[in-house]
């Protein structure tokens, strides 16, 4: 049987020699982690993507005379905000038929925007998760992105930047980007082209131009054109799996203030990532270093490497805690007067720092291991709750017969009181409500109203209805601009209501789930994909559909009016931030199936915002909480979160730094002792 003294010695030796190597890795993790608090991996956030899209309205106007004008004057194509469409845009049903698709087969993630060199295209996800683009004017599948198209897409993106200098006109778009025009014109030489600033394109669209610094309007100044840098499959800034459907990527360098590097999709021609120079530099000392991306795409299995290193790190930290507790005198002191046996110096500091920051260090290493989902511990059986019955991005193009022109016209008219397809499903008015208030069209529906620019149309299925959701240009604060269209409102709801809990099986008691008034974010208006009529649904209908997913065990529905532990907003640069909208209030639907499925529902649009089971919520605790400490009291009271994280991070950094010094010093002593013994052995042998 092992003696206690021997066990103690093994703990100390294990920590000592594991720490010699692991303290360097710990130092890297702490340093890069603090960088990642303020600069994450480069990404194109949702708001950035929408802010750089030209308005759809100007692509959906024009006539055959515009085509002749464009053929005679290619300079007209330099202005993405000027009406330039030669023909009306095709509906998805028409475009997919022309492209040779079977319109009865579902497609995923269908959207329309002017994201390819300013030209309107339908984008969908095809087989193998690859994105496909179809010209919205001709219905032809667009060819793979070439150099000229990539530069043109980058230039249009640049035109919508908020930072000078920026061009007021783009180089002529390549013939390939305009298959409806004559293709015999020579493509411009993008490397040598320069752009002369001209009146802002928004002037042509009938809106006042933004203020432009005086130096950008001088006719004598020449702004260099974007510079094409070639193609890349994957580099230090494009490790995201979400880009796999766009590879290979075209690289275009903007001559802006930040030397922004744009990555253009090789399949659709869209800008899919922007990486300003400061972000690229911080990425190398942040995410790239933190995740050891230098070992990606090598002979080493990167996932296994991270898991093994994390396990060794946990062993190093745990043995360090045990060794530290063994050597620390809680009841008294050593002869030196210290609770630590070590003489003043780095070793004593390492001991003291370990006693203070050991637990936070272990929590970060352990939660980092959990981020890799080792041994699939967060992956379980598929849920029996079919959320796609409520909303889905898989639609059949044959059901999308409304043209973009009709949809945009309906958005401008803004009819807030259009009845749903089945009027009988609408909830009866409660006392105090005017029974005719839902039946009479609003006065505003009889005339067109001024709306913000629509930059994208998205198709989806909600409650078995194929609908279209317009996406508006973001406002200065990053939120989508509000259309002047009223939302569906339940009479007993208050926008400032506290979070309420109820069981959906009791909807007739007056405690039913409630939909907020107009949130002012542009997400609460849907239009029928068949005829472009505004389409609404009642809360009772949505509740009935949610109950129908588990009729034997009706779900529990909560109205979440503000962020909580499982539904909260993170900053756009973080791993989970900037990817999607964050509407409030929402419904949380809790099912009692074996997987304990939860759904987060946007009650204004019927969209399923997220689905989780008990394992996913366990990951929220073991990874997100322990790694980011994203508790709402901290996140909502900055800089409290910053102080908390920086103190723990600096403690870990100092703990690792003193460990490196101790390890190097001890290794030097061992090396010198070995050399002395070797010299003595050689001398005695001779």
TrEMBL record:
Residues 188-197, 422-439 have a biased composition (Polar residues). Residues 164-220, 414-447, 495-521 are annotated as: Disordered. Residues 496-513 have a biased composition (Low complexity). Residues 164-176 have a biased composition (Pro residues). Keywords: Membrane, Transmembrane, Transmembrane helix. InterPro entries: PepSY-ass_TM. The chain crosses the membrane at residues 17-39, 302-328, 348-366, 643-664. The keyword Cytoplasm does not apply. This is PepSY domain-containing protein.
């Amino acid at each position: 049987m092992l003696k206690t003294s021997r066990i103690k010695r093994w703990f100390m030796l294990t920590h000592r020699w594991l720490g010699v190597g692991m303290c360097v890795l710990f130092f890297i993790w702490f340093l890069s982690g603090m960088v990642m608090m303020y600069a994450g991996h480069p990404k194109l956030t949702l708001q950035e993507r929408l802010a750089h899209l030209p308005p759809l309205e100007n692509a959906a106007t024009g006539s055959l005379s515009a085509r002749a004008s464009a053929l005679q004057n290619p300079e007209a194509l330099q202005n993405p905000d000027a009406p330039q469409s030669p023909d009306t845009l095709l509906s998805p049903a028409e475009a997919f038929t022309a492209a040779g698709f079977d319109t009865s087969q579902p497609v995923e993630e269908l959207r329309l925007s002017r994201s390819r060199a300013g030209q309107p295209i339908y984008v969908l996800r095809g087989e193998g998760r690859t994105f496909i683009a179809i010209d919205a004017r001709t219905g032809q599948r667009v060819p793979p992105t070439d150099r000229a198209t990539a530069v043109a897409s980058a230039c249009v993106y640049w035109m919508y930047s908020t930072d000078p200098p920026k061009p007021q006109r783009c180089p002529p778009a390549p013939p390939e980007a305009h298959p409806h025009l004559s293709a015999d014109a020579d493509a411009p030489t993008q490397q040598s082209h320069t752009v002369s600033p001209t009146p802002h394109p928004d002037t042509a669209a009938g809106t006042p131009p933004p203020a432009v610094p005086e130096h950008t309007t001088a006719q004598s100044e020449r702004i260099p054109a974007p510079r094409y840098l070639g193609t890349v499959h994957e580099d230090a800034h494009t490790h995201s799996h979400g880009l796999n459907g766009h590879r290979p990527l075209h690289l275009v360098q903007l001559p802006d203030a930040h030397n922004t590097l744009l990555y253009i999709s090789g399949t659709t021609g869209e800008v899919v990532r922007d990486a300003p120079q400061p972000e690229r530099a911080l990425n190398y000392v942040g995410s790239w270093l933190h995740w050891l991306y230098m070992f990606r795409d090598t002979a080493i299995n990167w996932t296994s490497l991270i898991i093994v290193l994390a396990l060794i790190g946990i062993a190093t930290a745990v043995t360090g805690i045990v060794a530290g507790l063994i050597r620390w005198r809680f009841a008294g002191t050593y002869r030196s007067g210290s609770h630590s046996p070590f003489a003043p110096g780095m070793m004593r500091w390492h001991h003291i720092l370990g006693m203070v920051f050991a637990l936070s260090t272990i929590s970060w290493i352990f939660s980092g291991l959990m981020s890799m989902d080792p041994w699939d511990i967060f992956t379980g059986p598929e849920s029996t709750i079919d959320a796609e019955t409520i909303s889905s991005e898989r639609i059949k193009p044959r059901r999308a017969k409304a043209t973009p022109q009709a949809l945009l016209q309906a958005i401008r008219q803004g009819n807030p009181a259009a009845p749903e397809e089945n009027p009988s499903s609408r909830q009866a008015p409660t006392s105090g409500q005017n029974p005719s208030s839902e039946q009479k069209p609003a006065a505003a529906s009889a005339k067109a109203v001024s709306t913000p620019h629509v930059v994208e149309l998205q198709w989806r299925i909600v409650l078995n209805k194929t609908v279209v959701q317009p996406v508006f240009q973001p406002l200065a604060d990053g939120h989508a601009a509000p259309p002047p269209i009223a939302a569906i409102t339940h009479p007993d709801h208050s926008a400032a209501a506290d979070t309420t809990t109820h069981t959906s099986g009791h909807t007739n008691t007056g405690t039913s789930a409630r939909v907020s008034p107009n949130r002012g974010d542009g997400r609460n208006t849907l239009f029928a994909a068949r005829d472009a009529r505004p389409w609404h649904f009642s809360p009772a209908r949505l509740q009935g559909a949610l109950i129908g997913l588990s009729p034997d065990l009706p779900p529990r529905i909560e109205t979440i009016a503000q962020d909580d532990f499982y539904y909260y907003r993170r900053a756009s640069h973080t791993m989970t931030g900037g990817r999607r909208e964050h509407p409030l209030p929402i419904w949380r639907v809790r099912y009692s199936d074996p997987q304990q499925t939860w759904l987060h529902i946007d009650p204004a649009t019927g969209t399923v915002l997220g689905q989780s089971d008990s394992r996913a919520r366990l990951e929220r605790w073991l990874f997100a909480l322990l790694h980011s400490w994203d508790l709402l009291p901290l996140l909502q009271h900055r800089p409290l979160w910053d102080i908390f994280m920086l103190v723990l991070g600096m403690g870990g950094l100092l703990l690792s730094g003193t460990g490196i010094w101790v390890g190097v010093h001890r290794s030097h002593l061992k090396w010198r002792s070995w050399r002395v013994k070797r010299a003595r052995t050689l001398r005695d042998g001779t």
